[in-house]
Design goal:
With 570 residues, the protein is mainly alpha-helical. Helices cover 63% and strands 5% of the residues. It has 27 helices and eight strands.
């Protein structure tokens, strides 16, 4: 192994660097060029959304890409500025800064650093499971709500008016009260930008049918941001539209970012903590979902803990660079994948290319209209709104629909952090409610088989002196007492019953409260002249029964299968 690779063998990147080939280099170079072309307008746009200086959008597209390329495991994921993380940054930093631009900047940088540190700690402790607290309906409601708020927040740039707000009510009121100040030149430029954004998508079918290389057709179909920025910037420059009241990006400092740490007080660091945790969780869920979907297409595997490390270090690098939080981008990643990106070298090359842009080409962005960047943001988030999923969940699962709707409403009517918190709390509450009311079925023998099924759904055989009950949930303090009473009442409702056989095939765990309830049920039934039996007890549950002594206290027996129990007691 070459000495350089031996020195880097502790990096995840050493896995693919050791097998890097010329074909890989060609595919990665083409993909990196295309990603860079998309990164420039998107970086500027997401910096606008985050409320940060435009150059920070370029900074967030340099070192984070290089760091993720060295430490991440996805071969196609494009890390950088994204809509959701930018919105969360703007909302949280705005609340902390209270109108002070310098405090806003330092709060945003602090969130990036702290979210990265949280992800690195999660990687060290193998805590990727925490993201499971974000259920699919909650994520859908959160993303849809954020998309609506993002689109609404950009209307002021599309209309050329000054209107701010933390939620949809505030935004709507402020926009409506300032409509009479609409700047129609800005509206015209925004309309032109939207046409440029939509046109390549409309031509996507024709591009695929044309005799073009696959990667070129994929890029052209998604080149709307590049086209919109070029057309409107040239128009602004030629006609000097900025002299007529059109808001433009303005002067962007050239050069590479200077390493720095945020200047925050202890109280401000505490305020930054919760938004940073939110950024960490949302960013990781968004990235890992996309990375796993693309890895499956190439039959590759994603290491979740390494992804935590890679994304965490990328966010820390963004913070050190004086920029805001980053995550995997859906649009850039799909373009990179279609363009033939073979390894994380794509991200390294794109990061270096963005460094070149920051060094030598920032002067070309002075006349980029802010309306164009707002149009790029709006068109990129519209597809994230999932109204159909809300209707589908209503038909499929009302509790899940409630979780999605509550999250959506919280984001729209309060703010993004509160909306997500409402969704998570409601999802956990619904889970506890479901598990506290387990499905309990009386079962009988299917004629001619050894199988037992619900008596309400199948034609089965039963014996008058024997009651067979299946509990379809683990037993814990939330359901143990109510289940004890239910089983006792059902048994007492049939005086001829002498044996209650509890079918335990769906019981995976017992806690201390459940053991106490089983002991109590056993004693109550024994006093009534009914024996309690267990069947199909799983190994871990049997171990607990032995440790607690319930196995020896049981008035009845424990059977390997329910069929053996019925046969022995019949």
């Amino acid at each position: 192994m070459p000495r350089a690779l031996r020195l880097l063998r502790w990096l995840p990147a050493s896995d693919w660097l050791a097998r890097y080939s010329k074909d890989d280099a060609t595919g990665d170079a083409i993909a990196a060029l295309i990603v860079t072309l998309l990164l420039v307008p998107q970086g500027l746009a997401y910096a606008l959304l985050a409320g940060m200086p435009p150059e920070t959008g370029l900074y967030a597209s340099m070192l984070p890409l290089i760091v993720y390329g060295l430490f991440g495991t996805s071969r196609a994921l494009s890390v950088g500025p994204a809509a959701l993380t930018s919105l969360i940054t703007a909302s949280a930093a705005g609340a902390i800064a209270a109108g002070d631009p310098e405090r806003f900047l330092h709060a945003a940088i602090g969130m990036a650093l702290l979210s990265g540190l949280i992800l690195v700690v999660m990687a060290a402790l193998r805590m990727g499971w925490l993201t499971n607290l974000l259920s699919h309906p909650v994520i859908l409601g959160f993303v849809s709500g954020c998309a609506i708020v993002i689109a609404a927040s950009q209307l002021r740039h599309l209309l050329g008016i000054d209107a701010h707000g933390e939620n949809l009510i505030q935004l709507g009121f402020n926009l409506f009260s300032h409509l009479n100040k609409t700047h129609w030149l800005t509206v015209a430029i925004a309309t032109l930008a939207i046409i440029c954004l939509v046109l390549p998508k409309k031509l996507a079918g024709a591009l695929k049918r044309a005799s073009l290389p696959h990667w070129l057709a994929a890029f052209l179909s998604k080149s709307g941001p590049v086209l919109a920025m070029l057309v409107t910037t040239v128009l602004c420059l030629l006609l000097q539209l900025d002299q007529q009241g059109l808001a433009v990006v303005g002067t962007i400092p050239g050069g590479l970012p200077q390493p720095a740490l945020p200047r925050l007080s202890q109280d401000e660091w505490q305020q930054v903590l919760m938004p940073a945790l939110l950024l960490a969780l949302i960013g990781f869920v968004e990235s890992i979902s996309l990375a796993q979907a693309l890895a499956a297409k190439r039959r590759e595997r994603i290491n979740a803990n390494r992804e935590l490390l890679g994304l965490g270090l990328a966010n820390m690098a963004s913070g050190v660079s004086g920029s805001f939080a980053v995550t995997g981008s859906f649009s850039r990643t799909t373009v990179s994948f279609d363009a033939g990106a073979r390894t994380p070298m794509t991200g390294l090359l794109a990061g270096l290319a963005m460094g070149g842009v920051a060094l030598w080409f920032t002067g070309g962005f002075t006349h980029v209209p802010q309306a164009t960047l707002a149009a790029i943001i709006v068109m990129s988030v519209i597809s994230l709104i999932e109204w159909r999923e809300l209707k589908h969940l209503w038909e499929f699962s009302r509790p899940d629909c409630l979780a999605m709707a509550a999250t959506l409403a919280g984001v729209l009517l309060i703010n993004v952090q509160t909306g997500l918190l409402i969704g998570v709390v409601l999802s956990l509450g619904l889970f506890l409610w479901r598990t506290s009311q387990p499905h309990v079925a009386e079962v009988g023998l299917v004629p001619g088989t050894h199988h037992f099924r619900n008596i309400d759904r199948h034609d089965v055989e039963r014996q008058a002196h024997l009651l067979s009950i299946r509990v379809d949930e683990s037993l814990w303090f939330g359901n143990a007492r109510s289940l004890e009473d239910l089983l006792y009442d059902r048994t007492m409702a049939r005086p001829e019953v002498r044996h209650l056989v509890l079918m335990c095939s769906a019981i995976n765990h017992l806690d201390a409260s459940a053991v106490v309830s089983l002991q109590s049920l056993n004693a109550r039934l024994d006093a009534a002249g009914v024996q309690l039996h267990l069947s199909e007890v799983k190994g871990p549950v049997m171990d607990l029964l032995k440790k607690t002594g319930l196995e020896s206290e049981l008035s009845g027996q424990i059977f390997l299968s329910h069929y053996l129990a019925v046969e022995a007691l019949g």
